[in-house]
Amino acid sequence: MIKKCLFPAAGYGTRFLPATKSMPKEMMPIVNKPLIEYGVDEALEAGINGMCIVTGRGKNTLMDHFDKNYELEHQISGTNKEVLLDDIRATIDAASFTYIRQKEMKGLGHAILTGRELVGDEAFAVVLADDLCVNKNDGVLSQMVALYKQFRCSIVAVEEVPENETHKYGVISGQEIKDDLFRVDNMVEKPEPGTAPSNLAIIGRYILTPDIFDILEKTEPGKNGEIQITDALLQQAQSGCVLAYKFKGERFDCGSVEGFIEATNYCYQNIYLESDAPLQPQSTVKCG
């Protein structure tokens, strides 16, 4: 039912300079896998196999990652390191990848609008790769796809944040229609301290109905002079229905240094060490 997932990936990642001067922030590794690959795997788990990536200048390594590297594969063929490519090979085989370049950085709403040509006239998911979501059971997108099958409207993922952090997010208020599910009546992008309508913050997982594109085309620049998806969703909520879902699972803000380190430590302890990964780490500290 949801066949395509849009990945806005054109940003500069300035909070991680100088690393992101030549490497897309979406390619920064959490242990041994880049952020965007975690997002693609989450989409595949939800039954979505069309990956639509909005890129920008200097982002060619995103395309290279989801493609064969014949020289590398030849060099490690037959060695004990070849198995390290099993996961990414499976991901490449399971998904299709299309790309479009965002010519100007005009906000998340503009990035999503740029992907219209890839998505077409159908409902679709959106994943922001620097919001890493980890679950032992169903992933966040799987949870949201199940809700979309029932309600057939746009859905945003939300989590409770401390009140002194609401100014960093889009924040919703609404009527709780059942456990952890709200019908949105208001949305504010990065509200001023003390003015947030609640402490339910939108994180980087969305399911959007295709009429959002027409709304985005008419949406004026908002906070920070950018076209905000929050403003378009508020209009959609006022004329129809938008749901906010308080998801189950762990979420890490890998757009911040602190969140990136937390995610790395969590995934190392709870995923990597518990997996059957070859070349398990030795007791001595050795980078590489």
Automatic annotation (TrEMBL):
It catalyses: alpha-D-glucose 1-phosphate + UTP + H(+) = UDP-alpha-D-glucose + diphosphate. GO terms for molecular function: UTP:glucose-1-phosphate uridylyltransferase activity. Its EC number is 2.7.7.9. It comes from the Bacteria. The keyword Nucleotidyltransferase applies. It is an enzyme of class 2 (transferase). One of its GO terms (biological process) is UDP-alpha-D-glucose metabolic process. Keywords: Nucleotidyltransferase, Transferase. Residues 9-266 form the Nucleotidyl transferase domain. Pfam families: NTP_transferase. May play a role in stationary phase survival. Belongs to the UDPGP type 2 family. This is UTP--glucose-1-phosphate uridylyltransferase. It comes from Enterovibrio coralii. The lineage of its organism: Bacteria, Pseudomonadati, Pseudomonadota, Gammaproteobacteria, Vibrionales.
